[in-house]
Amino acid sequence: MKKLIIASTSTVHNSGYLEYILPRLTSFFEGVKTILFIPYARPGGISYDAYTAIASKGFETIGIQVSGIHEYNDAQEAIANAEGIFTGGGNTFELVNQLYKNNILESLSKAVLTGTLYLGTSAGSNICGVTMMNTNDMPIVYPPSFTTLGFIPFNINAHYLDPDPTSKHMGETRETRIKEYHVFNNTPVLGLREGSWLEVMGDTITLKGNLSARLFQPGKEAKELDSESVINL
């Protein structure tokens, strides 16, 4: 049975890395001693080693060690042997590019679908959807495909922002851009606000955190989903 936490972000305002979600991660990863970290998204262009060190510091408070997938000679074997897997945020285009380049998309899918615990934040959450097409990131590289893991039957728009009524910015809102996406695509999109996450237990997908999420479906009005809602599509 697949078991995932798909979080909008790793860090909320006035909080440390993963701090807001650590109580849930403590129980989610209970019994896990080491997590395999996938640092390919490289926020700000930092090195894999530097990013793995950040993830390690986040998990050390709950007694879990972190190793970076780049430290292994055989990435597929590392995934197959992992107790838990964490894919961090950064640039989704580069993350997906590296997943294809290192030929581990299928290995990652197989591991999670057969029960390996998975945590994704931001870009690491975007790849849990049908495609990565609702990322907010700049296309700094061009991956072989936008198709991703499909653990959930919709796409994620992480860091979803509501329009600011006091802003003088007259450009497109996040909702406008998602509507543009639905002119050409039928996959539903979930706008996941900061501090919210999805828990996937088998086929059950539940919204967690203190905020609602915004569900967009082609040809329908956007719908607010309250925390603890079970998402059925």
TrEMBL record:
The lineage of its organism: Bacteria, Pseudomonadati, Bacteroidota, Flavobacteriia, Flavobacteriales. Keywords: Dipeptidase, Hydrolase, Protease, Serine protease. PANTHER family: ALPHA-ASPARTYL DIPEPTIDASE (PTHR20842:SF0), PROTEASE S51 ALPHA-ASPARTYL DIPEPTIDASE (PTHR20842). InterPro entries: Class_I_gatase-like, Peptidase_S51. It holds the Pfam family Peptidase_S51. Its EC number is 3.4.13.21. This is Dipeptidase PepE. GO terms for molecular function: dipeptidase activity. Belongs to the peptidase S51 family. The gene is pepE.
